[in-house]
């Protein structure tokens, strides 16, 4: 690790403080310091990187698809069952198709994680855009707004809180999947858990488990704070 | 700029518009068409003309097609048939791209529930139309601020919509439509969501603004009182068709159908009727050259406080009090007996402002703008006019109607008096194929 842990921790704490206020900032500071203290720093960073990469990829795919589903009733009708299926399949089933393509390792893990975590952001993006009041959409049309202007000036800004809720859910799903993906060679906290199961080391497994919880809470609070900021003025 | 002409507009909602159009052409009713092919007739052969600079109120109950018609004007709703011409541009023929540009240039719209973006400040909302037009930011800001000042929201531009009351939000909605400098304002039940007091203020203010702005305004409302308060012409719709069109006083005085009659039944007639409509044109009129004896012979057996005297070509000469006529020598001419106070009222004057004078002076002479006598106005005439309920048998006495319709220019003169200006004069004539006004 090129960057010393304390710098990473300080930056993360400051960033979350800025986004979500003092409580989230302090939570991040002490949570990460605790993980460092448990000698789980390396694993934590690996997990975090996997989660962030997978989430970013899921958003890059999911938000445009969500917009498409929102604007095309037909697309929504056809692909909605696919989303249902993606969400109901047991999570480790996704590990199977990933293996023959990418082999054991982080790439397969990332791929499975993306597939598993993309439905919420698609769904909530579509929902958010559809729920923009018809009168507001009509206002854009009435003033001669093009489809793009309507999307970027009215629909997306108003759907943003809902989309951010989708981002939050996607990130949580990504975290849970990254842990399971340890079975096909993903590193990180998941691997520590997986190894301790195989070696019957209850203590080590417990430590890593707590680490995952801390990471989950930090990510959840931070993204929820982002979602709250996206809400229009005065609507709590 | 801003003249709108709609010709033969029809709108079918449903799967099989072509079939429904055929049925419509065969003259089938809305219910029959719905039964035969399941399509709903939204609008049917509507022809409306909105002269530039005038307020037109589209009125009707919900489902009458008034909002659909409004949205046809800027093609937010695509009409199934018919032609829309705005300032010589055939809107129905515009490509999508040209249509957007045309909307940006010509139309501002105000919505029932304000339709302000909750994530933008009032300034951001008012500047929305300009942003769409890609007006440079600094200029857009300046124009938005001007519109904000115009509607009296100065000092609130940095607030968010949810920090404002309903009335203020709708002011912002109006400012947004004004900022874009469109020729035509489409107002869809714009004041319906406001409470009654605020609504009345806004109506008055819109009227006031209109005096200087001279926009073409199409206002959708289900409230006849509102339509009257706005002071424009009214198009009454039912089941997607125009039932009657005309000035409020014309509609109230002579409802074309039972439906219209019911619509206007509870209206405050004093606020709508004008002196010329109420005046009694059958009352005897004396000539100034007659002598007292001749006058007494003409009036034998008739009672009254005063008589009206008019010279040749109906030019009003003056009022002759009954007591003075009784006291006069038989050979005196009437010209020398007339009241000093002429006691005249213009035919276009609203009845509401005359009640006091009628009560105090007994008889008023209603004259047109050229000083010709239209008829006499007594408290009896006022009571008769106010008691008249359409369909209640008596309605407005035939003589009064005759007094109006025998003067074909009458309608035009009233418009001249109306608050929205001289430009409406020729317009009223050229407007909508006015369904029979003389139905009384």
TrEMBL record, chain B:
The keyword Calcium does not apply. Residues 415-434 have a biased composition (Polar residues). It is found in: Cell inner membrane. It comes from Methylobacterium indicum. The keyword Cell membrane applies. This is Quaternary amine transport ATP-binding protein. Pfam families: ABC_tran (PF00005). Keywords: ATP-binding, Cell inner membrane, Cell membrane, Membrane, Nucleotide-binding, Transport. InterPro entries: AAA+_ATPase, ABC_osmolyte_uptake_ATP-bind, ABC_transporter-like_ATP-bd, ABC_transporter-like_CS, CBS_dom_sf, Gly-betaine_transp_ATP-bd, P-loop_NTPase. It comes from the Bacteria. It is a peripheral membrane protein. Transmembrane segments: none annotated. Residues 18-264 form the ABC transporter domain. Belongs to the ABC transporter superfamily. It catalyses: a quaternary ammonium(out) + ATP + H2O = a quaternary ammonium(in) + ADP + phosphate + H(+). Its EC number is 7.6.2.9. The complex is probably composed of two ATP-binding proteins, two transmembrane proteins and a solute-binding protein. Residues 390-440 are annotated as: Disordered. It is an enzyme of class 7 (translocase). PANTHER family: GLYCINE BETAINE/PROLINE BETAINE TRANSPORT SYSTEM ATP-BINDING PROTEIN PROV (PTHR43869), GLYCINE BETAINE_PROLINE BETAINE TRANSPORT SYSTEM ATP-BINDING PROTEIN PROV (PTHR43869:SF1).
């Amino acid at each position: 690790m090129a960057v010393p842990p304390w710098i990473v921790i300080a930056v993360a704490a400051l960033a979350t403080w800025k986004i979500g206020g003092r409580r989230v900032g302090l939570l991040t500071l002490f949570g990460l310091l605790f993980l460092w203290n448990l000698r789980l720093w390396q694993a934590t960073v690996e997990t975090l990187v996997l989660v962030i990469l997978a989430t970013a990829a899921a958003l890059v795919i999911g938000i445009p698809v969500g917009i498409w589903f929102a604007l095309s009733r037909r697309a929504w009708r056809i692909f909605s069952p696919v989303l249902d299926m993606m969400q109901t399949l047991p999570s480790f089933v996704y590990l199977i198709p990933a293996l023959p393509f990418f082999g054991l390792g982080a790439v397969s893990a990332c791929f499975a994680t993306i597939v598993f975590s993309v439905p919420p952001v698609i769904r909530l993006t579509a929902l958010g855009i559809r729920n923009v009041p018809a009168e507001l959409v009509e206002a854009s049309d009435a003033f001669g707004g093009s489809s793009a202007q309507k999307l970027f000036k009215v629909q997306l800004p108003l759907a943003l809180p809902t989309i951010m809720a989708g981002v939050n859910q996607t990130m949580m799903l990504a975290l849970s999947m990254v842990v399971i993906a340890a079975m096909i060679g993903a590193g990180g906290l998941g691997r520590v858990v997986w190894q301790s199961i195989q070696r019957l080391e209850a203590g080590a497994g417990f430590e890593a488990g707590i680490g995952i919880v801390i990471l989950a809470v930090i990510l959840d609070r931070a993204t929820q704070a982002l979602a709250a900021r996206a809400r229009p003025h005065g609507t709590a | 700029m801003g003249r709108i002409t709609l010709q033969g507009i029809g709108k079918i909602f449903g799967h099989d518009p072509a079939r429904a159009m055929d049925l419509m052409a065969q003259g089938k009713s809305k219910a029959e068409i719905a039964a035969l092919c399941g399509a709903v007739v939204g609008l049917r052969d509507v022809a409306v003309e909105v002269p530039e600079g005038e307020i037109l109120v589209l009125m009707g109950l919900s489902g009458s097609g008034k909002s659909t018609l409004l949205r046809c004007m800027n093609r937010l709703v695509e009409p199934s048939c018919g032609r829309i011409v705005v300032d010589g541009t055939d809107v129905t023929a515009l490509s999508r791209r040209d249509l957007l540009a045309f909307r940006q240039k010509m139309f501002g719209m105000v919505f029932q529930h304000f339709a302000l973006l909750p994530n933008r400040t009032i300034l951001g909302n008012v500047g929305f139309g300009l942003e769409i037009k890609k007006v440079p930011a600094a200029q857009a800001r300046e124009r938005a601020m001007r519109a904000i000042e115009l509607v009296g929201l100065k000092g609130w531009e940095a607030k968010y919509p949810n920090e404002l009351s309903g009335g203020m939000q709708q002011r912002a909605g109006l400012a947004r439509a004004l900022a874009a400098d469109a020729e035509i304002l489409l107002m869809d039940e714009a004041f319906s969501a406001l409470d009654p007091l605020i609504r009345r203020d806004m109506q008055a203010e819109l009227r006031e603004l209109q005096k200087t702005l001279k926009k073409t305004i199409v206002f959708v409302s289900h409230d006849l009182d509102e339509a009257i308060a706005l002071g424009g012409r009214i198009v009454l719709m039912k089941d997607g068709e125009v039932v009657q069109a005309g000035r409020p006083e014309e509609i109230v005085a002579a409802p074309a159908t039972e439906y219209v009659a019911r619509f206007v039944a509870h209206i405050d007639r004093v606020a709508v009727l004008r002196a010329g409509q109420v005046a009694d044109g059958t009352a005897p009129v004396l000539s100034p050259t007659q002598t007292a004896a001749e006058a007494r012979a003409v009036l034998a057996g008739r009672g009254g406080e005063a008589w009206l005297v008019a010279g040749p070509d109906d030019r009003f000469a003056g009022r002759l009090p009954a007591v003075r006529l009784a006291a006069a020598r038989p050979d005196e001419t009437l010209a020398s007996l007339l009241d000093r106070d002429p006691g005249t009222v213009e035919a276009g004057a609203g009845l509401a402002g005359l009640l006091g004078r009628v009560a105090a002076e007994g008889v008023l002479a209603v004259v047109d703008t050229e000083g010709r006598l239209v008829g006499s106005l007594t408290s009896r005439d006022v009571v008769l006019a106010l008691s008249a309920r359409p369909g209640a048998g008596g309605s407005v006495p035939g003589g009064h109607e005759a007094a109006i319709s025998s003067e074909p220019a009458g309608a035009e003169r009233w418009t001249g008096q109306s608050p929205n200006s001289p430009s409406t004069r020729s317009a009223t004539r050229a407007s909508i194929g006015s369904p029979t006004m003389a139905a009384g």
